[in-house]
Amino acid sequence: MNVKNPLNIIFGAFLKQERNEMRKSSSEMAGDLDLGESIYRMMEAGSAAFNVSRTNNLIRCLSGLKLIPSRLSVFYTAIQMFDYGFKESRYKIKDIEAIDYVEPDLEYFFEKISSVLLNNPESAKYKELLHGVAVPELKRYLCSKNYRIRTPEEFQQAVIQEYDMVPSLQMPAIVHFLKSQAGHIPLHIGPVAKEWEEREARTFRRLRGLYRDTDLILSDQNLKLFQYPYLFLNSFDRMEIIFVDKKSPKSLKNTFIKKLSNAKGSEISQSIADKIEIKTLPDSLLNVADPLLKGRDDIFPKLKAYWSFTNNAGIEIGFVGGADGANNYAINLPRKESLERKDLFDIIWNGH
Predict the structure, then answer these.
(1) 320 and 207, same structural domain?
(2) Helix ranges restricted to H, 22-147
(3) Does one domain contain both 321 and 220?
(4) CB neighbour class for 29 (10 Å; exposed up to 12, middle 13-18, buried from 19)
(5) Cα–Cα distance between 51 and 58 in angstroms, integer?
(6) CA dihedral of 170, 171, 174, 176, whole degrees rounded to 10
(7) Which residues constitute the domain of residue 267?
(8) pTM for this entry
(9) Is residue 80 part of a domain?
(10) How far, in Å, are 4, 127, 186, 318, 351 from residue 292 at the CA level?
């Protein structure tokens, strides 16, 4: 039985998606890549591997994506490893784990698409996983210099390594600075927050958020100021939002996309919309989320929101916020609390 290499299937689906977005025919795409049309069609179908000698053509053809040549090389190698090592009728978890490859980003890519690799290509679920999971992930892998999300432990280790390299003469000043910041409650509001998000957008990989009041996100005032620039970058993974609301998640997502499109003055593509995931939490279960929204009642008694950015260095940057009349405010959480509340959010997200 001739079994298609699953990485060829994913790469072919990726090529087809990009061709459709550029509104090119398969004949035009084949010409751009200096390939025969029949060979190109086989590549899109996953029946043939990409010809590595056409890599420069591919980078020029998809110049808007800014493909990273070294990532393409590693991916080509992975395709060959699959071809050489596995000839069974279906790929199994032991096969994927048997790939003794030390490149961390490729390993992370395999983890992200494992549901596709282990799914039967003939199953009804496969097509949904292919286009909803594998293709967007391959695009991020091939285009993002900072692809893999570092773990908090990796971040902590990196900090220790940097700390050990600091001249000892400077140590007292650094310790004094750290002590001066501990317990500090920095406010993060309005144009200052907008400028920070725009400046750091390329480092963000995920946004989590829980909101008691949908207007904190869906109001015209908010979307006029915050237009989520990271959402439109290949390096950004996804946005997970929980609203305490009776409306359906689908309705709230459509409202968000429509209002954001209006604020930006341009239509949001399906590939961007696919990064946005929204769930709802009924009032009766709000007590489950209360720990996410807790604050110092003597100073900030009306907390209505929690949100947190995960960046590619493994740093979790968490906030809680509320409203004081017409003014919104945000409080930056300490690192330890940011990690604890992120873990709690994931429990709520996966359980509802």
Answers:
(1) yes
(2) 26-32, 37-44, 55-61, 69-85, 93-97, 104-112, 114-117, 124-129, 135-143
(3) yes
(4) buried
(5) 10
(6) -110
(7) 183-351
(8) 0.60
(9) yes
(10) 46, 36, 18, 10, 15
pLDDT along the chain (352 residues), means of 10: 81 95 93 93 92 91 90 87 60 51 77 83 86 90 79 68 72 66 58 87 92 90 90 89 92 95 90 92 77 65 84 87 68 87 91 70
Q: What is the CATH number of the domain that holds 273?
A: 3.30.870
**Number of domains observed in the structure of the chain:** 2
Q: What is the pLDDT of residue 177?
A: 61
What the block records as the tokens of 303 is 């907390």
Considering the domain architecture, whether residues 64 and 189 belong to the same structural domain is answered as no
Does 170 reside within a domain?
A: no
Q: Do the strands 204-211 and 238-243 form a parallel or antiparallel pair, or are they unpaired?
A: parallel
Beta bridge partners of 310: 206, 316
Half-sphere exposure of 301 (CA within 13 A, CB side): 2
Instruction: Say whether both 237 and 132 belong to one domain.
Output: no
CA distance 36 to 30: 6
Q: Mark whether 201 and 80 lie in a shared domain.
A: no
Residue 163 lies in a domain: no
Q: Tell me whether residue 311 is in a domain.
A: yes
The strand order across the sheet containing 316-324 reads: 276-280, 238-243, 204-211, 303-311, 316-324, 327-332
Q: How far is CA 126 from CA 6, 113, 130, 259, 270, in A?
A: 11, 12, 6, 32, 19
Residue 105: how many other CB atoms lie within 10 Å: 16
